[in-house]
Amino acid sequence: MACYGVVHLLLAYLALRVAFGGGEQADQKGALQEAGSTAFGQVLLWVLALGLVAFGLWQFLMAATGYTWVSGGKRTRKRLGAGARGVVVIALGVSAFGLATGTGGGGSSNQAQQEFTAELLRLPAGPALVVLAAVAVLAVAVAAGVKGVRQTFLEDLDATGLPGKRKRWVGWLGTTGYLAKGVVFAVTAILLGYAGFNADANQAGGLDAALKTLAAQPFGVVLLTVVALGLAAFGAYCFAAAWAHKR
Predict the structure, then answer these.
(1) Which part of the chain is the DUF1206 domain (predicted)?
(2) Are 235 and 8 in contact (CB under 8 A)?
């Protein structure tokens, strides 16, 4: 989970560079490439690869047997979320392994989103399916925002590891981070929906396109800087959650 936090801190750094005119690949692979460019890049990539795969496997285990401290539908939702998170994190770990070994690491988030959209558009009622996918991503965005505002993520943390003032800081970091992720997911959903309405896969985009779309808006520098700080806050929250998460 700490490695997942490092990825978000690097994402925040790339987003800030985009906000002030940089042309970097501002997505998860870009963050891993940024890690590899440091003086200890190869070592850091191997640490991130091993850590992300371990985190992903733990999420799969949580999806199968975890969240016993909640019951009913909430437990099911948390387990489904853990399973989805496990898929994403394992994919990041595989990308890190590819970069560490020089065998690749997958394409950008924009390329992956466009390929996914193109495959959907080839199906019967393809544009409608793309719009439905956009609605699903928008639902994820809303869920992230609600989770941040209601601070339900604190239910997953051991209160004995976060006494008093420290818990308030973790709550603030988590709220800020989840709201920032909600904004990014929402922009991604808008791009995907636009691609569906126009039956044009090239108009879809992933995290990189979402951040650059924010930068292109009026007051884009301010808006993207706020989102970048939110992503950094989520990275910091991951460190706290790694310390105090319930097993």
Answers:
(1) 2-65, 80-150, 177-244
(2) yes
Residue 9 in any domain: the answer is no
Q: Are 86 and 159 contained in the same domain? A: no
Q: Are residues 113 and 91 in the same domain?
A: no
Please give the Cα distance from 239 to 1 (Å, whole number): 7
> What are the pLDDT digits (tens) for 209-247?
888 888 888 888 899 999 999 999 999 999 988 888 876
Residue 178: the pLDDT is 96
Q: Which domain holds residue 166?
A: 109-247
Q: Is residue 247 part of a domain?
A: yes
* Cβ atoms of 230 and 176 closer than 8 Å: yes
Q: Is the pLDDT of residue 42 over 90?
A: no
Alpha helix stretches (DSSP H) within 151-219: 164-198, 207-215
Enter the DSSP assignment of 22: -
pLDDT 10s digits, 130-141: 899 999 999 999
Q: Distance between CA atoms of 199 and 222, rounded to whole angstroms?
A: 32
Contact by Cβ (8 Å): 156, 119 = no
**How many residues in the chain?**
247
Specify if 63 maps to a domain.
yes
Residue 78 within a domain: yes
Do 86 and 59 contact (CB within 8 A), yes or no? yes
